[in-house]
Amino acid sequence: MIRLCDKNDENSIWDIINDAARAYRGVIPEDRYHDPYMSMEELVQEIEDGVTFWGFEEDGELCGVMGIQDKGEVALVRHAYVRNARRQGGIGTKLLLHITKITEKPILIGTWEAANWAISFYLKNGFTLVDANEKGDLLRKYWSVPERQIETSVVLCDAKFRRNAR
User: Fold this and answer.
1) Burial of 136 (0-12, 13-18, 19+ CB in 10 A)
2) Range of the domain at 38
3) Which of 8, 23, 38, 96 is spaced 20 to 30 Å from 52 by Cα?
4) At what angle do helices 91-102 and 116-124 cross, to 10 degrees?
5) How many domains does the chain have?
6) For position 35, which CATH number holds?
7) What is the pLDDT of residues 61-72, one digit of tens each?
8) Which residue would you say has higher pLDDT here, 87 or 151?
């Protein structure tokens, strides 16, 4: 079942993010990986900054989360993670489909360039990579990330974004 997460879910969201982000160890640049990947303070700040989390719950346990953040003319998919033990079971796809249905806005997604599995997932679900020149502009406009992260990331977009960009 997909449901809106609330304050009571913060510990579970934090746990899912940090469990799933272990996949980045040894893949993304060493200077960008740390353990835990996201602190509780960072999570709370993300929520205060407008990231709304949706969760996939099964048997009373939150198994995956995906955030969406309204940024005016676009919406950002933020912090899309599924517990490692539950990956490859369709949870991420169900969450992404839900997120895309609840917003009419064009959607952008940022992820690590080296996270081939994440890029493949989004491509399989109809998103396309934006070109390298556009990527930097979009990351600077809609995200608050350091230049080092911009250098080592990609941005994907949905068809609504491509239509609006013409």
Assistant:
1) middle
2) 2-165
3) 23
4) 60
5) 1
6) 3.40.630.30
7) 999 999 999 999
8) 151
